[in-house]
């Protein structure tokens, strides 16, 4: 299953989430950001590739819907409600991601 994680800058939250799935046997993950200065900025191709899209905050989902309404038509978008206060790879962020994702990804 192909997972896409979205945050603002694609430097801390979404990149940490992507790394959780490195070499996972059942999930493939990518990440991107919504802002112009993002490490990887989200594009239509990312959304087309993904089977499930996880955003960290509601505002990320709103931005995706504004810019990519057609690409999101048949996609599941899940808001994780994870604030932008954890650095990349932070143990608390990893624990929070695992907790929030468990309901959506049974093979985690």
From TrEMBL:
Coiled coil: none annotated. Gene3D superfamilies: 3.40.50.2300. SMART domains: LMWPc (SM00226). Residues 1-104 form the Phosphotyrosine protein phosphatase I domain. It comes from the Bacteria. InterPro entries: Ptyr_pPase (IPR023485), Ptyr_pPase_sf (IPR036196), UCP029416_PTP (IPR016919). This is Protein tyrosine phosphatase.
